[in-house]
Every structure is written in C-alpha cells, then in structure tokens.
Design a protein that fits this description.
The chain is built from 20 helices and 15 strands. It has 519 residues and is α/β, with parallel strands linked by helices. Helix 10 packs across helix 12. It binds one RNA strand of 75 nucleotides through strand 7, strand 8, helix 7, strand 15 and helix 12.
RNA sequence: GGUGCUAUCGUCUAGCGGUUAGGACAAAAGAUUCUCAAUCUUUAAACCGGGGUUCGAUUCCCCGUAGCACUACCA
C-alpha cells in the first residue's frame, strides 16, 4: 500500500530565507504536488538564542510571492485551502516547535526510560577542558564514562542535582561500532559507522527545548511525513536520525530521505552566502530583508525587479534537469516533470547571469499591458505626468523596448526620450554621427517636415528617403543626425517609431532645439 | 585531523559501454539595420589523473587528487 506523500519545509526563523532554502522549499512543493500529497510548513525555533523577530512572517510572504503553496502548518494558503478546510488539515499542530514542549517531554522520557538516552551535567567549561585534554575528543561510548552524567553517578545524585535546579542536557546513547545504513533517493545507499557519531544532545533544560535532531524526528513521525527532502548539509547526521527512529521503534514508518546538492558561490569555493551577494552585487534572498537588530537591509529578488516565475524557473534548474533541452518551465510544467532521481548529486555554482536571462525571457513573454502597469510608477518617479499619455501609447513603448532589457526597472534609461526631450547630447554619438553638414541637413529636413500633414511612418519614409536619395546625402548620415536630435544619442528603436510616438509638434521642436544647442 | 558526499566546456547541464560528446548562459565573429539593442548564423570551449573490467570506456569498479559538507547545549 502506497503511503500518502507528505513533505515539509522546516526552516528556522533566524533571519531572511536563504535562496538555497527557497530551492529546498520548491523541490518539496513540486514533489508534493506531483504526487497529490501535502506540503507542510513547520517552524523550527528550537534555538531560542537565534530567534529573529519577523523571520516567520518573512518566510510566509516569500513563499506566497513565489507561488509555493502551503497545505498544512504555519501560513497555510493556496487554492482550495482557505478557511475551514485549511484549518481542518491542521490536525498535527502546533507547527511551531517552541509550542510543542509538552510533546517533546514525553518522548525524551521515553528515550530515558528505554535506556537510549541519559542525563548529562557537564558544563561548557568542563567540555572545553576535555577537548583540550583529549585530542579529537568526542562525547561518545569511549568517553561518556569519564563525564558527569547519569551513567556515572548514582540515581539519587542525579535526582538531587535536578531538584536543585542544576542545568542538564539529555544525550542520545549511541551504540558503538555499528554500520548504519541510510537510503537516500538521490545518492543511494550511504553507510556510516556509529563510532563517528557523538552522543548528541537531544534536549536542554536551560530553555526547556529539544535540539533539532530530536524535534525533527518526533515531528516528522507525528506529522506523518513520508519524505524528508533537505539540504546536503544534513547528510552526515542522517544516520543519527535513523538511529533515533530505531530507538523510538518507528523504523517501519521512517520517511524516505533525499539530500539535495548545495548552492555554491559563483566564484571560488564554498557554499553561497549572504556575503557573496553583497560582494558580487546580487540578491541571495527572495525578498528584501530588514534586520531589526542590526538595521541592515539585504536586497531581495522581488525588489530587484524579478518576476517570481523567473526565480522559480531559474532555481528549479539549478540542480535538476530533465533529459531534453527544455529550459523554460512554468510551475505547472515543473510539477509535471520534476523528479528526485534527476536531481544532480554535485553542488551547483550560482550563475546569476543566467538568472537575469530567465527574467528577460519572462519579460518577453509578458503582456505589454501588465508591463505598462508596472512601468507607470517608475515613470512617475522620474517626474513624468503619466496621465497625459494614453495607456495604449505606454503599452506600445514598452512593447518596443522590452526586448532589450532584463527588468522593467531598466526600461527608463532605454526609453526616457519618449517622455522627456533630450537636454544633453551624448558626446560619443555626436562625434561619430553629427558631421559638418548635419545642421544644414536638419534645417532642410525641418522645412520638409513642417509641410507634412500625414505623420504616419509610411508617409514620412516616403517623404524623407527619396529626398535623401535625390540630394545624395547618405541615409546613415541624415538619419543618425535626426536621431540625435530626437533621442540625444545614437540609440533607440526605429526612427519612425519615435516620430510616431512624439508626434509632429514635438518632433519639430526637438529638431529646432538641437540645432540651437549643438549648432 | 576524522567521516561522508561529489567530479563532462568558464557556468548550469544532456549523455545511463560504441556519439563528429548535445543544449543553454556568458564570450568572440559575421549578417541585418539610420543607431543601439534584439534577432539569425557561425566560432571557440569539457569528459581530473592512474589502474582495472570489457572487443570497446565519459559511462561500471578500485586507488589517487581536488572541491564541498559535517564534525556545537545551531539549524
């Protein structure tokens, strides 16, 4: 009997959601949707010292922006999951680990009672001392009898210490010299000897919270998670997790594991970090993040002008690829085509340039009307009174220009001349395209244009081209000078597209102004 | 140091014993155009090294090398 697919994304609220975390969330989501299963969001806030206010809200907002729907847990949203139905699914809650203390108590006790765990009183100082004393010290079968714990002291003393309020931790008692097999959906069988595992802290009395390892196993079991899809950094502790399932007697219902390759720095070595983004000038977070403690602001993909579809598409292909050459995938297509066994095993260097290209692709595919709406605020920020332009005109302009930019935000510098007359003339263009005869050409052209009533591109072309030919001025020479008058530089779309948008009056005005200013 | 994972153009990758090793990004050149882009065409660019297995290895195995991850009362 096939088990219902249930996956979870379980970030800890320690700051902005890293782009690698976003990819993990995405892969989980794709897998869940493909199998008609459930996508849960759980908050792993078992480290009270690293909690960052606002992080949880940030995570939810980021997932919503990207279109990664949550079926169960924190921040449920998405199609058909609103209201009661959504709440009805939240039967495994609470989904914040800090709110599950009672649950963990029970399971810590179970491990203690079954002899799979013990209580330890060693202070940080004592541990530090041992690390100095014994090279490569590890708290395990070889050293645990040298330490202050319930294995080395009488039960009464343990009890007394706890009663006295002494802080302690609960450690997992690892059986030495045992090969632990982990089946990984991406990597196959991984075998690790338990000797290299230490007696992991499972619970700390100081904040009455479990550590990741315990909470993770208990929650995944209770929440009936079928597949654990997470970053490769967890692979070394996967055997520990297997041992934990075993100690609880849950090995039969243990989830399948899939450890994803890491996202690496674009240059050099190591995994992608926030600092790389700062250094190389690209965002490593989906949304802009304001750190309330430090006041630092980190840039986000949304604020940088990316479309969520582009970010999704880009991220999906960083570590996963189908057999063919297809590169543009909608979310629906990804859900259709995604598979864990086609996830690559090696880390992927983060290629930001390709990310820009993806956004370009989505910009090209986008309706001009939508782009125009996005462009209007930018126009207004540059002092353009957008209400004097009919919407179709703005749509026409963005349609002309979108193919030469990656982001809507780059549109302004490409097409500002449609909205404001040039005040300065690009020196390079002048040098190359404004010749001795240019003023005379422009004056003659001006005279011709002033007589012209039909301002259509076709009519203007029929007027000007024969004139140039007749006078033998050279098309390039005249047209480029004309372009400089209108644009202020040697760039932009076809010249009759520009005259069309500007209209006769404005066109003539610009030519006159240029004649005055450049001479 | 220990343990694990990984290894095809600069980058993301296709390839699942026999291929002119394919595609995309980035780069270069050309075409086109009144300009700048876009577009199209083209070029350059890779199987980490050494052993096996095999008629034949980029592909399978081993070793080496390199990279990465983990090695906390962090996740």
């Amino acid at each position: 009997m096939e088990r219902r697919v249930r996956v979870r994304f379980a970030p800890s609220p320690t700051g902005a959601l890293h782009i690698g975390g976003v990819r993990t969330a995405l892969y989980n989501y794709l897998f869940a949707r493909q199998h008609g299963g459930d996508m849960l969001l759980r908050i792993e806030d078992t480290d009270s010292t690293r909690f960052v206010p606002g992080a949880e809200e940030y995570i939810i907002e980021a997932l919503q922006w990207l279109g990664i729907e949550i079926d169960e847990g924190i921040g449920v949203w998405g199609k058909g999951l609103k209201g009661e139905k959504a709440n009805g699914l939240n039967i495994h809650g609470p989904y914040r680990q800090s709110e599950r203390r009672e649950i963990y108590h029970k399971y810590v006790k179970q491990l203690l009672d079954s002899g799979n765990a013990y209580i330890a009183f060693d202070t940080h100082e004592e541990l530090e001392q041992k690390r100095n004393e014994i090279k490569n010290f590890q708290y395990d079968a070889s050293t645990r009898m040298l330490m202050h714990n319930s294995l080395t002291m009488p039960a009464e003393e343990v009890e007394r210490r706890i009663k006295d309020g002494e802080q302690y931790v609960v450690r997992f008692k690892i059986t030495p010299n045992e090969d632990v097999h982990v089946h990984d959906l991406i990597r196959g069988e991984v075998v690790i000897n338990s000797n290299i595992l230490d007696d992991k802290v499972l619970y700390k009395s100081a904040d009455d919270l479990p550590t990741y390892h315990l909470a993770n196993i208990v929650d995944d079991h209770l929440m009936e998670v079928s597949h654990v899809i997470r970053g490769e950094e967890w692979l070394p502790s996967a055997p520990l997790h297997v041992l934990l399932y075993r100690a609880f007697g849950w090995e039969d219902s243990m989830p399948e594991f899939a450890h994803l390759p890491l996202l690496l720095k674009p240059d050099g070595n190591g995994k992608l970090s926030k600092r790389d983004g700062d250094r190389l000038g690209f965002p490593v977070f989906p949304l802009e993040f304001h750190d309330q403690k430090t006041g630092a602001v980190s840039s986000g993909y949304r604020e940088s002008g990316y479309y969520p579809e582009a970010v999704i598409n880009f991220l999906a292909l960083l570590g996963w690829h189908q057999t063919g050459d297809k590169e543009i995938y909608s979310m629906e297509e990804l859900i259709q085509d995604f598979s864990l066994d086609r996830v690559s095993k090696s880390g992927a260097k983060f290629d930001y340039e390709k990310g820009k290209w993806f956004n370009h692709q989505y910009l090209m595919m986008r309706d001009n009307s939508l782009i125009a709406k996005e462009f209007i605020p930018i126009l207004e920020a540059h002092g353009v009174a957008t209400n004097i332009y009919p919407m179709p005109t703005i749509e026409h302009i963005v349609g002309l220009m979108k193919e030469r930019v990656n982001f809507v935000s780059e549109l302004w510098e490409q097409c500002n001349f449609f909205f404001t007359a040039p005040e300065e003339y690009d020196e390079k263009s002048l040098k190359k395209r404004w010749k001795e005869d240019s003023p005379r050409h422009m004056k003659e052209m001006l005279a011709l244009l002033e007589q012209q009533d039909d301002w259509s591109a076709e009519a203007l072309d029929n007027l000007i081209m024969p004139w140039i030919a007749e006078k033998e001025y050279g098309v390039g020479l005249v047209m480029n000078a004309f372009r400089i008058c209108l644009v202020g530089a040697a760039r932009g779309p076809h010249i009759w597209e520009i005259t069309d948008v500007l209209g006769k009056e404005e066109t003539l005005r610009r030519v006159k102004a240029a004649l005055e200013k450049i001479g």
